[in-house]
Specification:
Shape: globular
Helix content: over 70%
Order of helices and strands: HHHHEEHHHHHHHHHHHHHEHHHHEHHHH
Largest sheet: 2 strands, antiparallel
Mean pLDDT: 88
Strand content: under 5%
Number of domains: 2
Strand order of the largest sheet: 1-2
CATH architecture of the largest domain: Orthogonal Bundle
CATH class of the largest domain: Mainly Alpha
Radius of gyration: 24 Å
Distance between the termini: 72 Å
């Protein structure tokens, strides 16, 4: 690689880092003060892109950039005041459910306003050409971005260190309760911070349109990148976000320049995994007390009563009788409900009794699905053997990933699970010889005796019912009680002889194993597998199912999975803007039942 090529790749890395810093800085501010894991931040970035393209045709590019950022900032303030302000006292992860609903609403808003096609932005007037650097052409606009990133960082630094408002923001980042006790108007402070963070996201989106088109699929991709930067730099640290953006931007640029383009899909997540393993609080972050799991906010789980067991048995009998009345699409939908109920229950085993949130649980769902496909198609194993052995692929992944993950806690643990999941996704997406690459695997059909919808439905019902019963039995076994003790007070659990990390690792592996079983059933029910099976949206859907039902109820994830799967199927088949409809329903449920649907029912019964 020549000296001129090295210089150009270095400059490419700087321009990419500047764009990444703009969106990550806003996310870092919002999380540092409000402690909200804002999945909608990528949607704000996407909205900035679309608004800038639309406004450019009317008022010109340079006028559209600040106006788009201002409009997105105003929208962020409205979201904070009308929605998030009402649920600050809800469990922290439950707030994530509200931001996911905003993602769905904004996506369909963009679909309605600008259509499904990617939208190209204009060239930046005055910066549409290229300059010669080391004998090669380099875009003028990229040079402008290289200068804008440090400028925004400097302005933020001065705002946060030299103004009274900035001092209050930094104080709230360290201790929100103390800031409130001193008489600071927390509502106004939170709104201002959310507005500034949203404005930065909108500014980043508006500035990037001369380089790439606005797309409906960019929201979750951007928020994943932003999470990586924020976590690598240190939660709530603007200098850390700037340093992490530079590091990741340069590494990605040189991976492309050196011919390692395939690794660019996962390199930032590899960097995050390495940083979190070596320095769990990020490059410039500070060690924080472990966040309480959502389970610690409510009463512990109680063993199911005899009446509850009878009701579950009656439900099983009712499900077993359904094929006598229908053999059509209803059985396909119910099979999906059973599969995702098991997937959600496996995630709940980590989140509820274990207190370990995961943003990458779909990795084990996908590993189980691909395990079934590889055994059946590549190794010519019988379907029955493939179904039995496929969960072991997920178990192997959970053994490796979990060993690192359980050494962290709170959001850091959740982000490390996301990193490993994205690494698994990139391997599945590119390993053509084994996984089929982006095309996936086709022809993963069950054996002849399970080929009919009715037969496979009964098989799924038996397998999922047995797996759910075993999971629930584990919750109330000595292992389950040790797991809950480790969640509630790790120091006391260690003091009485419970090996906390070993217990959590075992729970991580159990959750991965059962998620892999659900993935294998899913593969045989659909007949094909694609990389989307273990993507970020699938992991988010699993979180939504658990939170919809209620983390602190035993059967809540099952009801959440049933509700979400039914909503997605029924609304998507009859309504063009089905995501917005589902988002609206989720928002109503969030505001009406801040403990989940099953949690609300349990409270009413207890009263």
């Amino acid at each position: 690689m020549s000296g001129s090529a090295v210089l150009l790749q270095f400059l490419n890395g700087l321009s990419g880092a500047s764009a990444l810093f703009l969106v990550a800085a806003g996310l870092s501010l919002i999380f540092g003060v409000t402690r909200i894991v804002n999945f909608a931040h990528g949607s704000l970035y996407m909205l900035g892109m679309y608004l800038a393209v639309w406004l450019s045709a009317r008022i010109g590019f340079w006028a559209s950039v600040p106006l788009a950022a201002a409009l997105v900032a105003a929208g962020g303030a409205a979201v904070e005041m009308l929605l998030l302000r009402r649920i600050y006292k809800a469990p922290e992860l439950f707030q994530l459910l509200a931001t996911f609903a905003v993602v769905l609403l904004v996506k369909d808003l963009a679909l309605w306003a600008w259509g499904p096609e990617d939208t190209l932005g204009p060239r930046a007037p005055g910066f549409a050409g290229a300059v010669e650097i080391a004998g090669r052409a380099f875009p003028q606009y990229d040079l402008l971005l290289i200068g804008l990133g440090p400028l925004v960082f400097l302005l933020l630094y001065l705002l946060l260190t030299k103004t009274r408002w900035g001092i209050l923001v930094r104080a709230a980042t360290q201790d929100r309760e103390m800031v409130g006790a001193l008489g600071v108007n927390q509502k106004l402070l939170f709104t201002a911070v959310f507005m500034l963070g949203a404005g930065l996201a909108g500014l980043g989106g508006a500035l990037v349109i001369p380089r790439e088109p606005a797309s409906l699929e960019i929201d979750l991709a951007v928020v994943s990148d932003a999470f990586v930067v924020v976590v690598v730099g240190g939660l709530g640290s603007i200098p850390g976000a700037f340093l992490a953006a530079l590091l990741i931007g340069e590494i990605k640029a040189f991976c492309i320049g050196l011919g390692y383009s395939k690794i660019t899909l996962a390199v930032e997540f590899i960097v995050m995994a390495v940083v979190l393993v070596l320095r769990p609080w990020g490059l410039l972050g500070r060690p924080q007390a472990a966040m309480r799991g959502p389970a610690a906010l409510e009463a512990p789980l109680d063993p199911p009563s005899g009446r509850a067991v009878a009701a579950l048995l009656a439900l099983f009998a009712g499900l077993a009788a359904i094929p006598a009345f229908t053999t059509g699409y209803t059985l396909v939908l119910l099979t999906d409900v059973l599969v995702f109920a098991l997937f959600a229950a496996s995630l709940h085993f980590m989140m509820g009794p274990g207190g370990m949130a995961s943003f990458g649980h779909a990795a084990y769902f996908g590993l189980g699905a691909y395990g079934a496909g590889v055994l059946l198609l590549r190794l010519a194993a019988p379907m029955e053997l493939a179904l039995a052995l496929a969960p072991l692929f997920a178990l192997a992944g959970a053994l490796v990933f979990g060993w690192f993950c359980v050494r962290l806690s709170g959001v850091y643990l959740a982000m490390l699970t996301l990193a490993f999941a994205q690494i698994a996704w990139s391997i599945a997406f590119q390993w053509d010889a084994v996984t089929g690459g982006s095309n996936g695997l086709i022809g993963v059909w069950p054996a002849a005796w399970l080929a009919s919808k009715t037969a496979f439905y009964y098989a799924a019902l038996l397998v999922c019912a047995a797996a759910l019963a075993l999971l629930w039995r584990l919750v109330f076994s000595p292992f389950g009680y040790a797991l809950r003790a480790s969640r509630d007070s790790a120091l006391r659990a260690e003091a009485i002889g419970i090996p906390v990390r070993a217990v959590q690792w075992a729970a991580f592996c159990v959750a991965g194993l059962f998620a892999g079983l659900a993935g294998a059933l899913f593969a045989f029910s659909k007949g094909s597998i694609s990389p989307e099976t273990l993507s970020v949206p699938r992991s988010v859907e699993g979180l939504v199912m658990v939170l919809l039902g209620g983390v602190q109820t035993l059967t809540g994830p099952v009801w959440g999975a049933a509700l979400f799967t039914w909503l997605e199927d029924s609304v998507s088949r009859g309504f063009e803007y089905w995501r917005a409809a589902i988002g609206g329903v989720i928002l109503l449920l969030v505001l009406a039942f801040p403990r989940g649907v099953a949690g609300f029912v349990r409270e009413r019964i207890a009263r």
